[in-house]
């Protein structure tokens, strides 16, 4: 399993697109946090506030998750790219399954590689975001204490689960377009699932709306989901997607 994981990590990190994912994952949250911090500093200077409010930084990390969405998608979609004629015109998936005949172990290795890369990106993004907020707001910056550690852990869990959600969707579809469109749009500034909570409270149990509670308090959607329960709900969605994706992957001709 360690050899398979090392192979999948090496393969994932060799993809040109991974560096786009890394850039998005590392830079988006700090940039948004910087913009929000300058806005907050302006309001503090004008006397509107005396100190920055809690969501600065953590709120921005909800958008940086787009980087790990790309990681989860390309981890499996890259296997289906047709190689050039000079390389034989085949697909990577054929070579991968020849080297690792167990399809379940192959997918477990993929999931472990995606989770590892996503967790590392989350930790880097969290660190940079906190530093940016502290540098800009200085003494006005929100204090991060013991009580915020669970929120920071929640960010890492949210990023990892989101990446695995993207992986599961891509395993089912075998294409990057649909998961990329659905997940990127839904984590942009217009969150479709958030709008759905205005129509039905059941939308609170969709994976992203449940999971986001691990890092942010959302009080206007008619739900009392706690961060822990939200994480459990999101993990259940991810488990189901990966389970059915694995069944489909094992049954079909690649």
From TrEMBL:
Signal peptide location: none
Residue spans crossing the bilayer: 12-35, 55-76, 111-137, 149-169, 176-196, 228-250
Keywords: Membrane, Transmembrane, Transmembrane helix
Protein's recorded name: ABC transporter permease
Biological classification of the source: Bacteria, Bacillati, Bacillota, Bacilli, Bacillales
């Amino acid at each position: 399993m360690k050899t398979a994981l090392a192979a999948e990590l090496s393969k994932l990190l060799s993809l040109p697109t991974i560096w786009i994912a890394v850039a998005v994952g590392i830079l988006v949250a700090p940039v948004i946090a910087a913009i929000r911090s300058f806005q907050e500093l302006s309001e503090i200077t004008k006397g509107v506030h005396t100190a920055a409010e809690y969501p600065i930084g953590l709120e921005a990390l909800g958008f940086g998750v787009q980087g790990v969405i790309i990681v989860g998608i390309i981890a499996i979609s890259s296997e289906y790219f047709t190689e050039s004629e000079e390389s034989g015109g085949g697909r990577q998936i054929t070579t991968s399954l020849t080297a690792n005949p167990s399809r379940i172990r192959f997918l477990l290795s993929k999931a472990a590689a995606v989770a590892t890369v996503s967790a590392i990106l989350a930790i880097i993004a969290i660190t940079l975001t906190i530093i940016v907020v502290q540098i800009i707001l200085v003494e006005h910056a929100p204090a991060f204490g013991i009580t915020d550690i669970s929120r920071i852990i929640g960010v890492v869990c949210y990023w990892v689960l989101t990446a695995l959600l993207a992986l599961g969707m891509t395993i089912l579809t075998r294409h990057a377009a649909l998961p990329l469109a659905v997940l990127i749009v839904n984590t942009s500034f217009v969150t479709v699932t958030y709008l759905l909570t205005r129509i039905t409270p059941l939308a609170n149990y969709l994976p992203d709306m449940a999971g986001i509670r691990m890092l942010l308090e959302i009080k206007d959607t008619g739900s009392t989901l706690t961060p822990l329960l939200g994480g459990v709900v999101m993990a259940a969605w991810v488990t189901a997607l990966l389970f059915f994706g694995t069944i489909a992957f094992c049954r079909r001709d690649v």
